[in-house]
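Our preliminary data section would be incomplete without showing what the modeling component actually yields. Below, a chain of 216 amino acids is followed by its predicted structure, encoded as tokens that our downstream tools consume directly.
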Amino acid sequence: MRSKSEIISLLCNPGIIAVVRAQRSDQVLPLSEALISGGVTAIEITMTTPNAIAAIRDARDSIGDRALVGIGTVLDAATCRAAIEAGAEFVVTPVCRPEWVAIAHDAGRPIMLGAYTPTEAQTAHEAGSDFVKLFPANTLGPDYIKALRAPLPHLRIVPTGGVEVENVADFLNAGCAALGVGSTLVSAKILQEADWPELTRRATEFVNAARRARRL
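Predicted structure:
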């Protein structure tokens, strides 16, 4: 089993976290394979995916040695516990619930609490959240994150919403620890058409953009 510090390191390198809102649970394994082929090895399976907990268990059994499998869109403590028991290696929530930090940490798992304002972000940090999920990031952008981290440089920000290949460098250069990438990577069209080669192509683009930005 990976340690919490190992998981955190893998989430930040190359720093692309695929946010998967699959239409059917049987899509999770093939899309995960496509993402891994493109270099994306952090896969967040959201609770909006049908039978998400079972999908996490199956994914961990099949690809757990090659990728991180986490749970996203967690909205209650029971889901947090169930996902970890199923094998989720990291926990992501769009809301700020400090009491869930202990659940994740007791299991040796990192957690990202959600935030939108400086107060929420600092509250998440003080609660022990390993990362702060900034959502929705498309309404704020890299300049907001840069301004936020000026007085709060200790925050490990992971923006989600609005991250595209073209602005990967802008977000990372603003000081983000990693990026959550949803529909611009795993699009509804790709899922509908099961176009896994296209998903691999997009994953490669995002990973290459992140690696280029890290070298700057």
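The first strand starts at residue 16 and ends at 20. The chain has ten helices and eight strands. Preliminary results of this kind motivate Aim 1 of the renewal.
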